[in-house]
């Protein structure tokens, strides 16, 4: 079983830079209650948690084999019926690792989180 150990900060207002985060790494700021990641295409660091982000976006995470999927969808795109995981408006990032846990590739796609393994990633 894989163990996920994020980088950490206890300094309020401290945001990691793209140099602080490698591909596939996350950072938790305990003081601000924010989780940060690095976009695989642009390299920009963005918050994926906290009070305002949690209200505006819904997040899902899956670890399948050597692939890590992180998806988000706007709460305004929630369906009135059916599963939110079947809505085709998810922004999904896929990080692939080798057996040692080293990042091999990162890519993104848009589609249903329930169909994440079958999407075309670029």
Arrangement of strands in the largest sheet: 1-2-3-4
In terms of structural class, how would the helical and strand content be classed? mainly beta
Count of distinct strands:
8
Largest sheet: 4 strands, mixed
Number of helices: 1
Range of strand content: 35-45%
The 3D shape can be described as globular
The mean pLDDT is 85
User: What is the helical fraction, as a range of percent?
Assistant: under 10%
Low-confidence stretches: none
Return Rg in Å.
Answer: 15 Å
Q: Sketch the topology as an H/E string, one letter per element.
A: EEEEHEEEE
Query: End-to-end distance, in Å?
Result: 27 Å
Count of all domains: 1
Blueprint (SSEs and pairs):
Blueprint lengths: L6 E3 L16 E4 L4 E5 L6 E3 L3 H6 E8 L2 E8 L15 E8 L5 E9 L11
Spell out the key features of this protein.
globular, 5% helix, mainly beta, 4-stranded mixed sheet, 122 residues, 4-stranded antiparallel sheet
């Amino acid at each position: 079983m894989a163990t996920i150990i994020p980088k950490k900060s206890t300094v309020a207002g401290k945001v990691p830079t793209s140099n602080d985060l490698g591909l596939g790494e996350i950072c938790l700021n305990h003081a601000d209650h924010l989780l940060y990641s690095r976009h695989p295409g642009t390299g920009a660091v963005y918050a994926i948690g906290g009070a305002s982000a949690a209200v505006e976006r819904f997040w899902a995470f899956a670890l399948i084999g050597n692939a890590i999927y992180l998806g988000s969808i706007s709460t305004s795109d929630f369906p009135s019926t059916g599963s939110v995981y079947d809505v085709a408006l998810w922004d999904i990032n896929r990080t692939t690792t080798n057996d040692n846990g080293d990042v091999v590739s990162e890519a993104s796609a848009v589609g249903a989180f329930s169909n994440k393994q079958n999407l075309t990633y670029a």
